[in-house]
Write a structure and sequence with these properties.
Elements (H helix, E strand, L loop, with lengths): L14 H17 L4 E8 L2 H8 L1 H16 L7 E6 L2 E7 L3 H15 L14 E8 L6 H17 L5 E2 L21 H16 L2 E8 L5 H14 L3 E6 L10 H11 L7 H15 L4 E6 L6 H12 L6 E7 L14 E7 L4 H12 L5 H11 L3 H11 L9 H16 L16 H10 L6 E4 L6 H11 L8 E5 L9 H8 L7 H12 L4 E6 L11 H7 L3 E7 L9 E4 L17 H13 L7 H10 L4 H7 L8 H16 L7 H15 L3 H9 L7 E2 H8 L3 H9 L3 E3 L4 E4 L1 H12 L2 H23 L8 H10 L1 H13 L3 H15 L5 H15 L4 H17 L3 H11 L7 H16 L3 H18 L2 H17 L3 H18 L2 H17 L3 H15 L5 H17 L3 H15 L5 H17 L3 H12 L6 H11 L11 H19 L6
Helix pairs in contact: 2-3, 6-7, 9-10, 11-12, 13-14, 15-16, 17-18, 18-47, 20-21, 20-22, 21-23, 22-24, 23-24, 25-28, 26-29, 29-31, 29-32, 32-34, 33-34, 34-35, 34-36, 35-36, 36-37, 36-38, 37-38, 38-39, 39-40, 40-41, 40-42, 41-42, 42-43, 42-44, 43-44, 43-47, 44-45, 44-46, 44-47, 45-46
């Protein structure tokens, strides 16, 4: 037959013949509305056959494969050799489902037994399926769909059929390197190991190397070589996440490779592989353990037992570890033992890899960077090349790529996580776990639903742990139960990320910046406690395409595009079953029982009864297992049954699952002594987390009892110092505590005193820039307890508790920009406290005036403090009230009233000889003179205030005075002096924690640099100020800084940006009057009605202007 039509070697039709036949068959399918399917196949790792056994053996293998393909086809089907080891099959009049069935028959037939010859060779194929006209209407399109799916089959592990688009094609479109660079000696050892195993019954191979040295890649090569030589292969991969999951490594292997779903035991695995070896005439079994130190104990014990079973006559064991260590199966006494160590690649080897990956000869600078930054570790090289292959990087030059690569490697090395440190063993739920991990690859929020105690949080944590590689920028745990207001959701997310984020719209904008272009997973736990916060998640998801959210809740949230997965209890063994140990619920009981009693001997019938009584709820099973060291399983079951009978006899029954959990709780309660039960109930006084120290001081609970409860999983460790109680159990303990009103009252007071004292102790840290961040984050972690303590003090009108703490609480709120929350808190405090203690009342009012000012409520500020001034004694409190009132009048554009209070306050400060108060009024007087354009007088007063600040030795006051003087000299056009002063102010303000002052100084710097002609410097200064303001809801300051930017744009001829921004500022009722007039002059018209000013629109403006300034500066958004 003509060689142009038929391939001389395989006797399949040629590629030229295929092109003609494909064109005709597609036209026929379209004309007659018929279906045409196409299979794209290639042999997996075929190149290695030629390398290992020569081209003649490779040609023989190709002929054998085509014969096996033909054996599964019909008379109308045709097979074509497309090139090398690639083949195409045309299936006329064949729907897609039938084509997939044929493809799977071909897959099984090709790998059914080794191809005869010397040596026998085991092969597999990867197949892609496409159908016309269902998925394509042209020959080119049909071939492309099948080819892409065939590529996906290879990417997913080879040896499979893909008939739908399961993942996006690789960005680079390149195959990974099949050749192992620099590993010739290691490969030689692998071949020696396989050769010796062929002649004996047992052998081991240990592979050692640093993380990233290519241990996993060498194991994959060993897998391929073993398969080709006719061995069955079992590969298990250990990871820190898998280590927490019972039989996790085996489940992953079985689900992904073997499609074998029976209960896992050494005996069942041995039976399976013995049958496989007999049926396919294989030589034996080779077990590969990748990172064996991170295998879960269940999988490791199963493998150890497997190697000891006589059913398998020839067994090889290959394992990898970081260093030379003991064998994972010490009882496996192999006849021959091999080992190899992997070292870093040389510069020459790295160059060869880059030549392949970049498809070009790398320059010396690029090579030097890869040698230095990757350390010659193959994993880092491959990871970096994958990053380079992303579309947005391919058009960039090396100078642009280098900083991106540095940032990428830094992110990869420092990927963070705030997941709890201590996790219980994860048992069962394999199907749900796989489903959640798949869902996290989609952009929709995933919500796990179910009653308390069903295991929502533990499943979410396991899915998050096993998905960490997908989220380069971190996986973060966000507990929702401590939150009170929906807008605080952003603060809680920020805390999980280790950032100080304000509540409300400003927090959302800040998080948008933090999430920009980052792959992050948020695990939001117990969302049923704050369902009104759910809509606030949508802007974050909409603005950050790579952000993923996994949410647990007892109730539906009705989020847009959410995907819900409802959990029930674990499968329970029926009463008449004999294989109880194979059920996840029984296995969970056994595992927790062994934590309490290592020598525990299972009573399977009673364990099955316990699991049924608690409806398979994991929490109920864990708590029931607590007592196996004291009671038999039969006694535990009887105790639960007794309480269940009692609850069932009561009226107004809860649902069955809740009743079963109540029975468990009552059983647990009954097993404690009276004193232990009281201690346990005392924990109900805490909200959210608590520490060992707080448990000791508040409830007189010893650390030993805490350790005992933790060992029994009644308490869960949150981090090194803190614990939490499962919410359903906390509800139960809270009810027990309420049944003893005297104890509850005593503990509530001790709780309030403890946490209020804790807040006071931290107060001075809030003003220390070196310690402020940690102090705020640790306080945020106890915010639920702190709010409860504050509420107790308010309800009991305990001025002795509130007085010393008012300033501390406000110092905690102030740096985070929580001014709105501060207003709410202080207003409530004034209402509940009344004027019973005038000193506390006046202190609260003055702080409320301050927070009114920061939120732009000037009239409320004036109304409150004007009423109080006549009632106040002539002391420092009155002085500070006058100062706040003077500020409010200045903001309202009432200079005479502002001046009147300044004069009275200055006189009072002198009477009291109060240096701090005198400085405040001197500084205020200087600003007052400045506001009426008496600049020389302002400089004289400002210089006096600066001298006072230096005597007081406070960096914040000195920075503030320098900033004021810089503005005064700016108005006199003495720009060099202004620049010197503002530079000194900037140096000092970096040493203090005062976000508002910092933002104000950057605003001044922007104005001065604009006037000096340094526009790049001005843009950077304004941008720094905007970044700070986006963390706060400080409306007056925002209006001032935006006005400075509008003036800069106007002066540089950018009226298209300047005028709309000025009009927007004119729509504000929070801009202080002098700033309003500046914006009004710029806008060339009165306050415009076209714009609406609110906290939301203000934050939108800050974000938009920030982005424009970044574009002008040539920077990218960093949040």
């Amino acid at each position: 037959m003509d060689s142009q039509l038929v391939d001389p070697l395989t006797r399949a039709f040629t590629r030229a013949m295929f092109n003609t036949r494909l064109q005709n068959e597609v036209q026929r399918a379209l004309r007659y509305n018929a279906q045409l399917s196409l299979l794209m196949l290639d042999l997996d790792y075929f190149k290695s056959i030629n390398d290992a056994f020569g081209h003649q053996r490779g040609d023989e293998a190709l002929v054998g494969v085509v014969e096996r393909i033909r054996s599964q086809l019909r008379e109308s089907d045709e097979v074509f050799r497309y090139g090398g080891d690639e083949f195409v099959v045309l299936l006329p009049h064949t729907p897609k489902e039938e084509a997939q069935t044929i493809a799977e028959r071909i897959l099984r037939q090709v790998s059914s037994a080794p191809l005869p010859g010397e040596p026998p060779i085991s092969l597999s194929v990867s197949i892609g399926v496409a159908c016309a006209p269902l998925e394509a209407q042209t020959p080119q399109a049909l071939f492309q769909v099948a080819d892409q799916r065939h590529y996906q089959a290879k990417q997913l592990g080879r040896g499979r059929v893909i008939a739908s688009d399961m993942l996006r094609a690789a960005a680079s479109g390149q195959e990974p390197m099949d050749r192992l660079l620099g590993r010739d000696q290691a490969l030689k050892t692998v071949h020696e190991f396989l050769g010796v195993l062929d002649e004996s019954n047992s052998a081991t191979l240990a592979i050692f190397g640093a993380p990233g040295s290519g241990r996993s890649r060498l194991l994959q090569e060993t897998h391929r070589l073993a398969h080709m030589r006719g061995y069955a292969v079992l590969l298990l991969q250990g990871t820190p996440a898998i280590k927490n999951r019972l039989h996790g490594a085996l489940h992953e292997t079985i689900a992904n490779w073997l499609q074998y779903t029976k209960f896992i035991s050494a005996k069942s695995l041995a039976d399976f592989f013995h049958d496989l070896i007999e049926r396919k005439n294989l030589k034996g079994l080779i077990i590969l353990l990748d990172n064996w130190r991170d295998l879960d104990d269940g999988s490791l014990q199963t493998i150890r037992h497997l190697t000891q079973l006589p059913l398998l006559e020839r067994v090889g064991l290959v394992y990898s570890a970081e260093n030379d260590s003991e064998s994972p199966a010490p009882e496996f006494h192999a006849a021959h033992n091999f080992s190899t160590a992997l070292t870093a690649l040389s510069a020459t080897e790295i160059r060869a890899w880059l030549r392949h990956g970049l498809e070009a000869e790398p320059g010396e600078e690029i090579l030097a960077w890869f040698v230095e930054k990757t350390g010659g570790l193959p994993a880092k090289i491959a990871q970096t090349l994958d990053f380079l292959a992303q579309p947005h990087n391919q058009s960039l030059g090396w100078n642009q790529l280098r900083p991106r690569l540095d940032d990428f490697l830094l992110r990869a090395a420092s990927a963070r996580s705030s997941l709890p440190l201590s996790l219980s063993l994860f048992v069962g739920r394999e199907r749900e776990l796989h489903q959640v991990r798949q869902l996290l690859r989609q952009p929709h929020p995933v919500v796990l639903l179910g009653q308390g105690g069903v295991g929502k949080t533990r499943l979410a944590l396991q899915a998050a742990l096993e998905s960490q590689q997908q989220f380069l920028d971190g996986v973060y745990f966000v507990p929702i139960s401590p939150l009170v207001l929906p807008e605080n959701i952003y603060t809680a997310i920020g805390q999980a990320l280790g950032e100080t984020v304000p509540a409300g719209a400003s927090g959302q904008k800040m998080l948008d910046g933090l999430f920009a272009e980052k792959n992050i997973l948020l695990l939001l736990d117990n969302f049923e406690s704050l369902p009104d916060a759910a809509p606030l998640l949508l802007p974050l998801l909409n603005n950050s395409p790579s952000l993923r959210m996994l949410i647990t809740s007892r109730t539906l949230l009705s989020l847009q595009d959410e995907v819900n997965l409802t959990l029930e209890g674990l499968d329970c063994p029926p009463p008449d079953t004999t294989n109880i140990s194979e059920y996840a619920s029984a296995s969970l009981f056994e595992q927790h029982a062994r934590r309490v009693a290592p020598n525990f001997q299972p009573e399977w019938a009673s364990i099955g009864e316990i699991c049924r009584l608690v409806d398979g709820l994991p929490l109920g099973i864990e708590l029931a297992a607590v007592w196996v060291s004291t009671f038999s399983c039969a006694e535990i079951a009887a105790q639960i049954q007794g309480n269940l009978n009692f609850l069932t006899s009561q009226e107004n029954l809860a649902s069955d699952p809740h009743r079963s959990m109540s029975a468990v709780f009552e059983s647990l309660w009954g097993l404690f002594s009276a004193s232990e039960a009281q201690s346990l109930a005392s924990l109900g006084v805490f909200r959210g987390r608590f520490s060992r120290a707080s448990a000791r001081h508040v409830a007189d609970i010893s650390p030993f009892f805490i350790d005992s409860l933790t060992a029994k999983t009644i308490l869960r460790r949150v981090d090194e110092n803190n614990y939490r109680i499962q919410p359903m159990l906390w509800d139960f303990l809270r009810e027990k505590l309420r049944s003893d009103p005297a104890l509850e009252a005593r503990l509530a007071e001790k709780h309030a005193i403890y946490y209020i004292n804790e807040l006071q102790a931290r107060a001075e840290l809030f003003d220390d820039p070196a310690l402020e961040r940690e102090a705020i984050l640790s306080t945020n972690g106890q915010i639920q307890n702190l709010r409860a303590a504050w509420e107790f003090a308010l309800q009991k009108k305990r001025a002795d508790l509130l007085g010393p703490t008012l300033s501390a609480y406000c110092a905690f709120l102030r740096p985070q920009g929580w001014f709105v929350e501060g207003v709410t808190l202080l207003q409530k405090s004034l209402l509940l406290l009344g004027s019973g203690d005038p000193k506390i009342y006046f202190q609260t009012a003055i702080l409320l005036g301050e927070f009114f000012y920061h939120t732009g409520h000037y009239l409320e500020n004036v109304s409150l403090l004007e009423q109080l001034l006549p009632l106040m004694p002539r002391n420092a409190q009155m002085g500070f009230a006058m100062h706040r009132l003077s500020l409010a009048y200045h903001a309202l554009g009432q200079p005479n009233d502002s001046l009147r209070l300044l004069q009275k306050g200055t006189q009072l400060a002198r009477e009291l000889n109060d240096s701090n108060l005198l400085f405040e009024f001197s500084n205020r007087a200087a600003i007052s003179a400045y506001s009426v354009q008496e600049f020389s007088h302002a400089i004289a007063l400002g210089t006096q205030a600066l001298e006072q600040a230096r005597r007081l030795k406070g960096n914040q006051r000195i920075a503030q005075s320098l900033n004021n003087l810089a503005n005064f000299y700016y108005e006199l056009h003495q720009l060099e002096t202004a620049q010197t002063l503002i530079r000194q102010s900037l140096e000092l303000v970096e040493q203090v924690n005062a976000l508002a002052l910092k933002a104000s100084i950057f605003d001044s710097a922007g104005k001065i640099l604009t006037a000096s002609g340094d526009l790049p410097g001005a843009r950077r200064a304004f941008l720094r100020g905007l970044t700070l303001l986006r963390q706060m809801n400080a409306a007056p300051l925002a209006a001032e800084l935006l006005t400075g930017i509008a003036e800069m744009w106007y002066l540089t001829g950018d009226e298209a940006r300047a005028l709309p921004l000025a009009k927007f500022i004119c729509a504000s009722n929070t801009a202080v009057k002098p700033i309003f007039k500046r914006a009004e002059r710029l806008a060339l018209l009165p306050a415009s009605q076209e714009y609406v000013w609110s906290l939301q629109t203000m934050q939108n403006a800050l974000t938009e202007v920030s982005q424009r300034l970044r574009e002008e500066c040539g920077e990218r958004e960093e949040g």
